Q: What sequence folds into this?
């Protein structure tokens, strides 16, 4: 077997298809992996790496910025978990090597990596920084879950791994409830541990504007704060809505400064995660329009709603939800905001929302009606399309690609826009048929603010469906109604957490775990490697314990369950 593995070291790392896979299966002993998501190939060899002398931690081809993070990060993780000091100063007889390949044959978005352990080395290799980060996460899980004794001896192995899809995302709504930078970093740590690569940050909505925009300070002095009715989020559990208020409403809110946003974007980049901001337009904009009502159809400010907006207590006639596409000034305002947003977020993608626009406001507005007339738009859906196309064209001029919820197909989506399909698969199917790229985020089962178990046993959650662990694990992101060409336009998937009923990090974690790793394995691992019962078994072989040790809350249903 050793010879077999030795002969592989010269083998082209960019393996494709099944030949190498077959070869590895024949000459290696397949290892029961506790790693989530399950690696493509994981074989043991007959050697072991003993931490019995000084071990070096060295690198090849890493940029200064990358090694500045990755080397101390890995050193700290190893020392914390194994109680062993590693030497990052110079090469030793035994080494941990981090290497980015210099070969030119890289594919776009190449996230593959290799992890190889024998007697003298632990070798992490990849074609990209992201791949190398995934190698560190697999290694971290491997030694954390391996039941070693002292001195630490890790069995030799070879892992070849790559994701099945390149877009593996999480959306977090920080408008309905605000999460601190520290909380966001904890969430990023979790998604990075399970090799997700997109953090979609829903920064604006009716209930709060959360990003500092220097040109328009009222967005955060006014738009980031609302009058919260104490206990209002619990009204829905018994659907009474009638409880008297014991305490007066109080100001609730918060926002991220531009400095904090930059800090989060860099924190995520170091962990292989791209942060995509969402500025929700032209609806879901009550917070912005409370601060700057001149860009709404009404043009003046209604008294601030003395209520959170989701609890059914708001008179919708008294809130400005939509921008007015009849006014040129609305576009100037939005472009100014997006200019600052682009300075903060280096991502190629900007999400502009586009969901759930209540078009009655536009029907009643003279300026909107004039715009429809002058632009020959036949209805308000086309007015929405006009609005979104203008915003998209501005972003395109700045080399960005727009993402929108599937509602943007109404009236005609901007040609280059990526469709995020949330109302089932309809948006994905229609979008792909019109040649749009698509990201699958169907609310059933990918909205993690929905119940994960029988609602009677659970804290208050959105109730439209029960998005169980198994359904998240097994959901097929390629709609059957699409042909191969259509399926080829599916970039991947995202789960979403809307936070109307989730007001703490602790509750958020409870909604995320263990659905997050189930989602991750669904998208990372090929169908042949997916096995729900095996997944539960692996969760119980270390993952729950790690969360417990780190003080991370999780849903306990399958913890230590004898399902295997
Ligand atoms: C959405 O859930 N309104 C995208
Ligand atoms: Zn208008």
A:
């Amino acid at each position: 077997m050793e010879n077999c593995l030795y002969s592989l070291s010269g083998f082209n790392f960019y393996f494709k298809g099944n030949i190498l896979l077959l070869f590895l299966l024949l000459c290696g002993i397949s290892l029961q992996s506790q790693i989530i998501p399950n690696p493509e190939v994981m074989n043991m060899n007959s050697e072991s790496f003993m931490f019995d002398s000084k071990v070096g931690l060295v690198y090849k081809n890493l940029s200064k910025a990358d090694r500045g993070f990755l080397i101390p990060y890995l050193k700290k993780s190893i020392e914390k978990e194994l109680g062993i000091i590693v030497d990052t100063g110079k090469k030793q007889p035994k080494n941990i090597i981090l290497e980015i390949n210099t070969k030119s044959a890289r594919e776009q978005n190449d996230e593959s990596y290799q992890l190889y352990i024998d007697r003298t080395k632990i070798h992490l290799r990849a074609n990209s920084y992201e791949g190398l980060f995934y190698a560190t996460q697999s290694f971290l899980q491997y030694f954390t879950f391996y039941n070693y004794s002292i001195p630490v001896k890790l069995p030799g192995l070879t892992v070849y791994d790559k994701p099945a899809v390149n877009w593996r995302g999480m959306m977090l709504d920080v408008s309905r409830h605000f999460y601190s930078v520290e909380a966001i970093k904890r969430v990023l740590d979790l998604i990075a541990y399970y090799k997700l690569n997109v953090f979609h940050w829903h920064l604006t909505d009716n209930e709060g504007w959360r990003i500092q925009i220097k040109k328009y300070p009222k967005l955060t002095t006014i738009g980031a704060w609302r009058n919260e009715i104490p206990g209002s989020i619990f009204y829905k559990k018994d659907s009474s809505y009638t409880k008297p208020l014991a305490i007066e409403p109080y100001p609730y809110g918060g926002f991220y400064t531009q400095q904090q946003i930059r800090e989060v974007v860099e924190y995520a980049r170091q962990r292989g995660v791209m942060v995509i901001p969402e500025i929700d337009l032209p609806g879901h904009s009550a917070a912005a329009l409370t601060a700057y009502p001149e860009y709404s159809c009404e043009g003046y400010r209604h008294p601030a709603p003395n209520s959170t907006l989701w609890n059914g207590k708001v008179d919708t006639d008294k809130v400005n939800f939509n921008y007015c596409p009849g006014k040129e000034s609305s576009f100037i305002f939005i472009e100014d905001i997006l200019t600052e947003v682009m300075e903060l977020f280096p991502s190629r993608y900007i999400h502009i929302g586009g969901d759930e626009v209540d078009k009655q406001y536009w029907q009643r507005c003279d300026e909107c009606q004039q715009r429809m007339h002058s632009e020959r738009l036949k209805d308000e859906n086309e007015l929405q399309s006009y609005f979104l196309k203008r915003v998209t064209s501005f972003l395109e001029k700045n080399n960005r690609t727009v993402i929108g919820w599937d509602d943007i197909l109404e009236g005609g989506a901007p040609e280059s826009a990526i469709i995020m399909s949330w109302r089932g698969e309809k948006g994905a199917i229609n979008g792909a048929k019109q040649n749009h790229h698509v990201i699958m985020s169907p609310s059933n089962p990918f909205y993690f603010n929905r119940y994960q178990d029988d609602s009677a046993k659970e804290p208050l959650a959105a109730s439209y469906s029960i998005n169980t662990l198994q359904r998240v694990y097994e959901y097929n992101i390629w709609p059957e109604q699409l042909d191969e060409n259509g399926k080829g336009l599916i970039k991947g998937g995202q789960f979403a957490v809307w936070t109307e009923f989730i007001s703490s990090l602790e509750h958020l974690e409870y909604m995320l775990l263990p659905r997050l790793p189930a989602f991750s394995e669904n998208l990372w691992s090929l169908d042949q490697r997916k096995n729900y019962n095996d997944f539960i078994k692996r969760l119980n072989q270390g993952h729950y314990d790690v969360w417990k040790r780190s003080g991370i809350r999780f849903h306990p249903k399958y913890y230590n369950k004898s399902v295997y």
